Amino acid sequence: MILVAIVAEMMEEYTVLLARVLEHLFHSVPFPRRVRFLILHSLPYSTAHPVPA
Q1: 2-28 and 33-42 helices cross at what angle (nearest 10)?
Q2: Under a CB-based contact definition with an 8 Å cutoff, are residues 43 and 19 in contact?
Q3: How far apart are CA 16 and CA 9, in angstroms?
Q4: What highest taxon heads this organism's lineage (predicted)?
Q5: Which of 10, 11, 31, 52 suits a disulfide with 35, CB 3.0-4.6 Å?
Q6: Entry pTM
Q7: Segment 29-36 long-range contacts (CB within 8 Å, at least 24 positions apart)
Q8: Cα separation of 19 and 6, whole Å?
């Protein structure tokens, strides 16, 4: 059970990191503004819509 908790926490940290990398990447891609908005707002854990603590 402890192993499951450790893996779940690692996956959460990985997801947050991946969302930040994708967010940074999509800010610099020359997509139309509306497409970038939709992509960035669909990312989990993005800074576009912060997760309540």
Answers
A1: 170
A2: yes
A3: 11
A4: Eukaryota
A5: 31
A6: 0.58
A7: none
A8: 20
